[in-house]
Design a protein that fits this description.
The protein is α+β, with helices and mostly antiparallel strands. It contains 7 helices and 27 strands.
Length: 466
């Protein structure tokens, strides 16, 4: 009791600030010093949790706690020549791990795992490796590691020399242009999930013209298909709707054409309302619309006002709304992120693990999720060999605000004897059949001229010639 008979009461029993755990020391091995590595290791967000000691050549057993960056085969990322062995060689993917060894132990524990693509410029490949490695380290320090990926690691590199393969890829990019089209298949869902493939696909617009169609999605409650219509040579994509009549598509009806690029018009029927989330990759431009019966898109909300998102995929699970996407600030084709909300209009919150998955072979969304007997399946793009090379199908095992796991169940690859042998990019189901889009590379003289003029213009600009 206080003097005067007053009892002592605290306005807040938790008035003391929370005690912050002191940072622990960890030996970091398997990666060499670089500008990216050094900057990451000096980041206060990391050093407040962990004090990393970079000892690149350290191997287990170690007297201290050891975090080692390794390939799936156990090679250190600082091993001489490993970059050359993997760059631009099949399967165009490399699996990296952050492995923890307790003091004195040689037993590895996988803290994090992801698979990156190996195509592109060699310097960009090295930069991507360093960035992913440091993301693993930072997320482990902050308690946000993803653990083992759940998918088999990429196989060992093989095939021709990387420099030769890169040269071939450069010339193909210069000389060839992608031509896409949409198609449908009546294959049963069970057959596709068991690895039986799509069977016969009825393709549309197989002949090259000025515009192609891609990213098909059903317009629920109608017989129409939403898709992207894209100019072959220059310009931006727009959202259109088509109808199939006797295996022929009607003339597209334009739904969204505002001067900005739009694609991937993911749809969701929710309580009698058709929602649509077209891709818009400018920062903060991702928007959820209500699609009315007249084809007008009425804005509902902007779920990610500060992010650049690709292939936003809207679905509902466990009485929450989810938006699967690829964060373009992290990578073009190799990450899967989630936002979630209690209602379609928000508030939208990023998943505790951002990204939840890192894998160029299937992280990026490839169509709407579908529920089969209470099991949830997610199509993902395999972009290792080329953008939209194939569609990998995963079964989601766990999805919550703080956790995520899935396992691969099937891979759909393009028919090499068909009209679109170079890519299979989107997989959706309209309730009776599958819709897909396919790719082939074509020689287009107009596009080649456009590319050459662009290269000449850039060269003259560097030389200071008007």
């Amino acid at each position: 009791m206080q003097p005067g008979g007053l009892s002592l009461s605290w306005p807040n029993p938790n008035f003391l600030p929370p005690l912050r755990k002191p940072p622990f020391v960890v030996v970091l091995a398997g990666i060499d010093s670089s500008e990216i590595v050094d900057a990451a290791l000096a980041d206060p967000a990391l050093t407040e949790a962990v004090l990393p000691k970079l000892e690149s050549a350290c191997t287990p057993p170690c007297e201290a706690l050891l975090w080692r960056l390794e390939t799936a085969s156990g090679d250190s990322l600082s091993r001489p020549g490993w970059l050359r062995r993997h760059w631009h060689r099949r399967p165009y993917a490399i699996t990296l791990r952050l492995v923890q060894y307790q003091p004195g132990s040689v037993t590895p524990e996988i803290l994090d795992e992801g698979t990156l693509g190996t195509r592109g410029r060699r310097a960009a490949f090295k930069t991507g490796i360093d960035r992913l490695a440091m993301r693993f380290v930072r997320d482990a320090a902050l308690g946000r590691s993803r653990g083992p990926a759940g998918s088999p690691p990429a196989v060992a590199p093989h095939g021709s020399f990387g420099w030769l393969d890169a040269l071939r890829g450069t010339w193909r990019e210069r000389l060839m242009t992608e031509w896409w089209s949409i198609g449908s298949s009546g294959a049963p869902i069970a057959r596709v999930l068991s690895g039986g493939g799509l069977g016969q696909i009825d393709w549309h617009r197989t002949k090259t013209a000025h515009r192609y169609l891609a990213d098909p999605f059903p317009w629920p409650g109608t017989d129409r298909i939403l898709c992207e219509e894209m100019p072959l040579t220059h310009g931006v994509g727009r959202i259109v709707a088509v109808t199939q009549i006797d295996k022929t598509l009607t003339i597209p009806t334009i739904l969204l054409d505002d001067g900005f690029h739009h694609s991937y018009p993911c749809s969701l029927l929710d309580n009698g309302i058709v929602c649509c989330v077209p891709e818009a990759t400018e920062r903060g431009a991702t928007r959820i619309y209500w699609l009315d019966n007249d084809g007008k898109l009425q804005p509902l909300c902007d779920p990610a006002p500060n992010a650049r998102l690709a292939d936003p995929t809207l679905f509902k699970c466990h009485d929450r709304y989810w938006l699967g996407c690829t964060d373009l600030d992290l990578g073009d084709h190799d990450n899967l992120c989630f936002l979630h909300a209690p209602t379609i209009t928000g508030p939208w919150t990023p998943h505790a693990l951002w990204p939840v998955k890192i894998d160029v072979r299937g992280a990026r969304s490839a169509g709407m999720l579908f529920d089969v007997d209470g099991r949830l399946f997610r199509p993902g793009q395999d972009c290792a060999a080329t953008y939209g090379a194939a569609v990998a199908i995963y079964e989601i095992i766990e999805l919550s605000e703080t956790a995520f796991s899935e396992i691969p169940v099937a891979v759909l690859r393009p028919d090499q004897a068909g009209p679109f042998p170079h890519g299979l990019h989107t997989l959706v189901h309209d309730g009776s059949r599958f819709w897909v889009d396919g790719k082939r590379f074509v020689l287009d003289l107009g596009q080649l001229r456009h590319k050459l003029l662009g290269r000449v213009s850039r060269l003259l600009s560097k030389l200071g010639v008007d």
